[in-house]
Amino acid sequence: MCGIVGYVGKQQAAPIILDGLSKLEYRGYDSAGMAVFDGKYIQIQKSVGRLKVLEELTHDGRTMPGVLGIGHTRWATHGAPSDVNSHPHYNEEETIAVVHNGIIENYIPLKNKLLKKGYTFLSETDTEVVAHLLDYYYKGNPLEAITKVLHRVEGSYALGILFADHPDTLYAVRKDSPLIVGKSDEGCFIASDVPAILKYTRNVYYVENQEVACMTADSLHFYSVDEEELEKEAVTIEWDASAAEKGGYEHFMLKEMHEQSKTVTDTMSPRIKDGKIVIEELGLTDEEICNMSRIYMVACGSAYHAAMTGKYVMEGIARIPVEVDLASEFRYRDPILDDNSLVIVVSQSGETADTLAALREAQKRGCRVLGIVNVVGSSIAREADNVMYTWAGPEIAVATTKAYSAQLIALYLLSLKFADVRGKITKEELTDYMEDLKRLPQQIELLMNNKERIQRFANRYIAAKDIFFIGRGIDYAISLEASLKLKEISYIHSEAYAAGELKHGTISLIEDGTLVAAVSTQPALYKKTLSNIVEVKSRGAFVLAVTTVGNTEIEKAADYVIYIPETNPFFTDSLAIIPLQLFAYYVSVGKGCDVDKPRNLAKSVTVE
Ligand code: AGP
Questions:
Q1: Which of 47, 62, 300, 592 has the most CB atoms around its CB within 10 Å?
Q2: Three-class SS string for 421-442?
């Protein structure tokens, strides 16, 4: 996510903004910028790179005098990292400046309309559309212009806005992206997150969706989208700075697990339009999709596990043969690819050396490569023939959660798109699938709210030596990811097994009290997995079952059951993984491990 900081008051704005942006660096970004009203004009300085570049450019803000300003650290979503794509963006006369965090989903049609009206654009961003739209509606009343823009834009936004001919007032508004307002005797502040302004005030207002904040050095007013004034209560922040960076959560991993509902929404909703799957960046014609003979999904670690699920979904719905490869294997196995093969590389960081090498190997063999990537402008994003971004925002914890969930969504959407184009599903079936997808964010939220129960169960296993995860089909893919999560943050040995394979040797490891987590979310396989549960029970295992509500039969054999809400069986990974992530997290916390930075691990493995 991007970082926003704004200030209006008695002090110089630039140093406050730079300091606030430095407190948001943990969120990850690729460029930074600032706009300050210097008494006559809005001065704008921005550049790709670290905040330090902006500090040097502005001599720590000294070259940008003024008491009203906005600043931004950009996590690129639309448009690669560059000076021109950095925020703030502004209208042609530079009398309106705006910083933005979020995704304007309908920016392309709005941009086309503005182009037809003679507007010109400098950047590739969705945000610049907002700057020109404000210009279009501005007739001297900023609040009126802002509310008119809010009626036109779709998607998520947190906006900080300056109007040159209202040099004493800072404007801000949000929808689905975080934004807070702070107030002290020195002035008013806006920020994406508490850490940015904690040094200046603990007196904070949480802005609700489409509430417009208008603030001066000593006044603060809130208005609805219909320009009615609103009364809001301030909240006093009790957190210290470290807790504030994690949004009050103990670890980034827990914060990011809680963000999964939003990252699933952010990755999905711009791509479900008017009853169709729209993946503008796909770069494949319908004919190419119809002629596709095989898909190779190539990745490492959790991204590989997401691809494992992707295989079952793509083959199950679109009926296209899929091979899933570990990138470190793919690059050396002399793969047999043909012109009608599509290679999909999946990567959160976009910098994983093995995955990047696999991408190059596929291209060397004449294959088209689609990247499913979270970091805009990363090596894989730049080198893939086409990129489908997972808009999960920066992921700080080494153990991926929200990016993994977003990868699943990208693979579901791709499968539905291909199935629709190849005529494998009816329009009614497509509608049903999309309805199930739309329910996932709220269902994820529901599961996250059940975390205390998981914590109590996890506390029983902090001394465990071996924990097994078993499942069939998609449940096997889920087991792989659950096992990795547990291993990488709790250092407990764990294995994931295709449930039907356990009896071919590994079942000899099951002893009295060994925990076996059985994932059973595929109705067609309920009975088979139930028999595997009975198998391990008879050897003394304690069985945790993760299954879909309604499958109560499993209670006859399992010792502890976690139910997930009902969804299409193809999408159960998105739900079953939630309690299993929480299980791994609480075991790690119980063991006193470094949850966010586990030993021996890096967030991105950029070496072979
Ligand atoms: C995930 O929890 C792990 N940290 C790791 O397996 C990761 O998924 C793998 O290294 C791939 O990283 P990428 O998605 O950035 O390519």
A1: 300
A2: HCCCCCHHHHHHHHHHHHHHHH
DSSP 190-232: EESSGGGTTTT-SEEEEPPTTPEEEE-SS-EEEE-TT--EE--
327-355: burial string, b at 16+ Cβ within 10 Å, e else: bbebbeeebebeeebbbbbbbbbbbbbbb
What does the alpha-carbon distance between residue 178 and residue 163 come to, in Å, rounded to a whole number? 22
Distance 178 CA to ligand 1 centre (A): 27
Q: Which tokens belong to 571? A: 């999408």
User: Which spans in 352-473 are helix H?
Assistant: 353-364, 379-383, 402-421, 427-448, 451-458
The answer to whether 558 and 544 have CB atoms below 8 angstroms apart is yes
Name the residue of 260, 344, 346, 352 to mutate for ligand 1: max ligand atoms within 8 A of Cβ. Answer: 352
The number of the ligand 1 atom at minimal distance from the alpha carbon of 400 is 2
> How far is CA 204 from each of CA 26, 235, 552, rounded to the nearest angstrom?
21, 5, 47
Q: Cα(371)–Cα(386) distance, rounded to whole angstroms?
A: 6
Render pLDDT for 399-448 as a digit per residue (tens, 0 to 9): 999 999 999 999 999 999 999 999 999 999 999 999 999 999 999 999 99
Q: Distance, CA 336 to ligand 1 centroid (Å)?
A: 26
Binned at pLDDT 50, 70 and 90, residue 53 comes out as: very high
Residue 192: partners with Cβ closer than 8 Å, 6 or more residues away: 1, 2, 3, 4, 5, 24, 27, 101, 158, 177, 178, 179, 180
**Could you tell me if the CB of 371 is within 6 A of ligand 1?**
no
- 367: annotated active-site residue: no
- How far is Cα of residue 253 from the mean position of the Cα atoms in its chain? 13
Residues 6+ apart with CB under 8 A from 532: 470, 472, 499, 500, 502, 518
The answer to whether the CB of 584 is under 6 A from ligand 1 is no
At 513, phi and psi to the nearest 5?
Answer: 85, -5
- Which amino acid appears at position 541 of this protein? A
Length of the chain: 608
pTM: 0.80
Token pair belonging to 360: 């190059």
Using CB atoms within 10 A of its CB, is residue 229 exposed (0-12), middle (13-18) or buried (19+)? exposed
69: closest CA among 140, 9, 141?
A: 9
Strand order of the β-sheet with 542-548 is 493-498, 466-471, 515-520, 542-548, 560-564
Residue 79 has pLDDT above 90, yes or no: no
- Kindly calculate the radius of gyration of the chain based on its CA atoms and give it in whole angstroms: 25
Tell me the per-residue pLDDT of 64-73, one tens digit each, with 9 for 90 and over: 999 999 999 9
CA of 604 relative to ligand 1 center, distance in Å: 7
* pLDDT score recorded for residue 605: 80
User: What digits encode the pLDDT tens for the residues 338-387?
Assistant: 889 999 999 999 989 899 999 999 999 999 999 999 987 788 998 999 99
The helix/strand count (H/E) of the chain reads as 19, 27
| pLDDT attached to residue 177 | 86
- Among 350, 85, 317, 252, residue whose Cα is nearest residue 597: 252
**Alpha-carbon gap, residue 431 to 270, rounded angstroms:** 16
The continuous run of DSSP H or E covering 149 comes out as helix 142-152
| DSSP secondary structure letters along 252-316 | HHHHHHHTHHHHHHHHHGGGEETTEE--GGG---HHHHHH--EEEEEE-HHHHHHHHHHHHHIII
